[in-house]
Amino acid sequence: MQTKQNSSGFHVVEVILVVAIAAVFGFIGWRVYVAQDTKSATVNTQGQPQEAPTINATSDLNEATATIDKIDLDDSDQELSDMQGELNSL
Fold it and tell me: What residues does each domain of the chain span?
């Protein structure tokens, strides 16, 4: 007598193939995550992490204050008013 094989469902080879593909995607995702995590650290042009400058004298503090004062914050106010105008038009 011949027995009929049940051919419905997944075969073992198909399941192993799906698991292998999922493992490859997981490994690639993990590598991208680790690469992004290491890139998030601040690095200067020589590849070394930047450290905050040490303030040893009043002149260092005055130089830092002058640098901060050069930052133009007025552009952000213009963008904010543009966004508020767009919201009001809706």
Answer: 12-42+57-89
